[in-house]
Design goal:
The complex is a heterodimer of chains A (110) and B (89).
Chain A lengths: L2 H13 L2 E5 L9 H12 L5 E4 L4 H11 L6 E4 L2 E4 L1 H10 L1 H8 L7
Parallel strand pairs in A: 1-2
Antiparallel strand pairs in A: 1-3, 3-4
Helix pairs in contact in A: 1-3, 2-4
Chain B lengths: L2 H13 L3 E6 L17 E7 L8 H11 L1 H6 L3 E7 L5
Parallel strand pairs in B: 2-3
Antiparallel strand pairs in B: 1-2
The chains are: A alpha+beta (110), B alpha+beta (89).
Chain lengths: 110, 89
């Protein structure tokens, strides 16, 4: 995998606090797991930048290698992988997702 | 061996789980991306194993992903995972 795509990923992660790599777009998700994470973030009022990996095969493969994570969606906060749909769902239900966003300074404490 | 049996065998051998549930949800995804006529593309797996104790969420799932890497690359389209250590909720 080329260093160029890793550099692109690093730039994307540096540009926004919350980044979601997904299949499809927030308005037209192409996968139920991606749709669920969009819904969780939206319901929580969390602003995020989404990238559609279906439109970008190089980015799709690059992310798998970059994070040693084979599936999508992938949610990142402040450049760090939080997880996929299972982990994000669990963390949203337990309140840990909100806690993480507060700890990272992305949202103000409630 | 079916995909499901392969998943079960590998997880049992590597993780000695005290609980292992593998649900084939492929039938709910017929016609969706990644579905195949022969099925066995979408699975939901619950693993309770002492091997997960002390590991974070990402590392737990990475252990399972690594055990099933070839399947995830070539055969299984979706794998939903719940990884717990014994005694956790």
């Amino acid at each position: 995998m080329s260093e160029a795509v890793f550099e692109r990923i690093r730039e994307q992660l540096a540009a926004d606090d919350v980044v979601l790599y997904m299949k499809g777009t927030p308005v037209f998700p192409m996968c139920g797991f991606s749709a669920r994470v969009v819904q969780i973030l939206s319901n929580a009022g969390i602003k995020f930048q989404a990238y559609n990996v279906l439109e970008d095969p190089e980015l799709r493969q690059g992310l798998k290698d970059f994070s040693n994570w084979p599936t999508f969606p992938q949610l990142y906060v402040k450049g760090e992988l939080v997880g996929g749909c299972d982990i994000v769902t669990e963390m949203a239900q337990s309140g840990e997702l909100q806690q993480l966003l507060v700890e990272k300074g992305v949202v103000a404490a409630a | 061996m079916s995909v499901r049996e392969t998943i079960e065998r590998r997880l049992r051998e590597a993780l000695a789980p005290e609980r292992l549930e593998i649900v084939d949800e492929s039938a709910r995804h017929v016609g969706h991306a990644g579905a195949r006529p022969e099925g066995e593309t979408h699975f939901r797996v619950t693993v309770v194993s002492a091997a997960f104790a002390g590991l974070g969420r990402l590392e737990r799932q990475r252990r399972v992903h690594a055990l099933l890497a070839d399947l995830l690359r070539e055969r299984v389209h979706a794998l939903s995972l719940l990884c717990r250590a014994p005694g956790e909720l």
